[in-house]
Amino acid sequence: MKSITVTSPASVSNLCCGFDILGMALKEPFDTIQLLASDEPGIRIQHTDPFDLPSDPEKNIAGVALQSMMNALNYKAGFDVIMHKQIKPGSGIGSSAASAAGIVVAANELLGRPFSKKELVAFAMDGEMLASGSKHADNLAPCIYGGLVLVRDTATLDIVGISTPPLYITVIHPQIEIKTSYAREILPKEIPLKSAVVQWANVAGLVTGFLKADYSLIGRSLEDVIIEPVRSKLIPGFHEVKGKCKEAGALGGGISGSGPSLFMLSESASTASDVEAVMKTVYTRLGIAFKTYVTTIHEKGVEVIEII
Ligand code: HSE
Fold first, then answer.
1. Contact, 31 vs 85, CB < 8 A?
2. What residues line ligand 1, using a CB cutoff of 6 Å?
């Protein structure tokens, strides 16, 4: 086997109340990554997308994640990487995670699967660290495991899949960039116990809602009293969009990851389309360019599409 091509999905992390611990992979959008084994040592990266990302493997998220895996194997040969990203960096839908997860899954397949999914998450986290300045796996784990996951413990990578009833996800990506590192810097270092209690209750409610297919409980639990009040100030139109989407029938939603994308969950495809129309109307009036997606949960995560 000499070359492998994978798709690597966007993801919505946090899911409002589950900061750094909950995330789900999406069917759309996704990146495409081709990895070619080479006798020439080192990593060479080429981007065929318009995002002007560094090709230097030490400054490229995929390069750092792949190098981390190569170090663990004491791998002496090299790789050529061709990346075609559709997930815009700084969008809040897991662009860096898609790069890091996609490359390590691809390399693992090409090398005969020497590593477990958990080990792949650990390598990919080294890439994610470059993007956000912190190690968290709430976008990476759903990319690698697929579906909706809980990262119960980041240090030991205790990752738990959570089943869900059918859900439709509407995402709007206002074309402004918010760097994850900045969106993390501005967060409070300490929180009142009263807020923590509300947040814990919502995380428990949300997970229970997914497992019991209780849409009403899912909707009631999609609330964030800690992160959203701070980060929503960075997103024009946030409160108006959230309110109007719920009026249009969305179960609930909020900031996707560290923003600026917003996501809403709906019980039916038609409601998810109504929600999309509401989002478009608000951002058109605000004069902010945007992209929208109406999609579902990707149960597989990174997928091999070609092996030569
Ligand atoms: N959980 C992370 C955050 C996701 O909200 O900062 C972004 O990488």
1. yes
2. 13-14, 19-20, 132, 136, 138-139, 180, 183-184, 257-258
